[in-house]
Amino acid sequence: MKYRNLGKTGLQVSEISLGCEGFVDHDGTLTPLLLDKAEDLQINYLDFYTPDPNLRNRLGKALAGRRDKFILQAPLCTTWKTDQYQRTRKIEEVKGSFEDLLARLETDYIDVGMIHYVDSMEDWQEVSQGPVMEYAKELKAAGKIRHIGMSSHNPLVSKAAVESGLIEVLMFSINPCYDLQPASEDCNDLWDDKNYQSQHINIDPDRESLYELCEQKGVGITVMKAFGGGDLLDASMSPAGVALTVNQCIHYALTRPAVATVLSGAHTLKELEISAAYETAAEKEKDYAAAFALMPNISWEGHCMYCGHCAPCPVGIDVASVTKFLNLTKAQGTVPETVREHYSALEQVASECTGCGACEKRCPFGVKIIDNMKEAVTVFGK
User: Who's near 227: CB < 8 A, 6+ residues apart?
Assistant: First the structure.
């Protein structure tokens, strides 16, 4: 298992992590077995969003004696009413549910406290300027949460949260189909078939700039819905009209800037094993470029997807990294010092490009790589 930095939190998280779906299924009876399997697979990051008291009790028992082996992402702003989950912004409910979470999980802290499901700008303003954020800050100061996070499906809301400096982790829905869709305050738009009937050209600019902003600001992204609820794995269900594999979906998410881990919503032990097998898969099994080329109504022409087909460069330039750093400067309209430092740390920089064109011949998306190298020299000075 490989590990990545979760933004600037100082946490090292496994590239594949365990989502909450398996804890919810089967009335939670799989919970201890899922943790056993995660431990065997060296998965150290868990998401647990449910406020169901029975499921919280089960996870608490399963974590006993091994709490320090897992980094736990869990929600603020969920509550259990009339035997069902509800999102809440009522501060007394928020406080009561979080204290209940700590008690039932038999722990005195949560690693990443997630302000749950913020998809409208109005909601973000209420959260960020009201008692919910103040409570989150109090919890962090007291050590009851180590880092403040937020979950969202809306790139514009997410960018506002990242720009505010109030969050350290963003849980966001990332896959090649959702990335085509413009910002919406209704997450159902992401999987509505009518939104995939017309021609789509390249990733939505707000989503792309969000990932680049997170990279620049040091906000780590944990990915939900990498498989689109399983739809992307079935050609008859996929909005793209082409079936992708688990490895392709995971690889797409992990090649977006700032992404630290992909949450596998595994319903069974086997599904978790299949997701974790990404770590030992051959590069050709991860490669999503050929599948993208077959997608009807979708064009990625001229857009770098960080797929790595441009490699190897004859002089050793990491073309994808140079392109990523260049895109970060475009997103910010300036050259952030951290980006300049990362660029300078590359073993070979854009000025060493000979213009041979080998990378452009291999690029499946027709990116003008030589022009990008020239622009990078202008921007970074070498």
Answer: 175, 233, 246, 249, 265
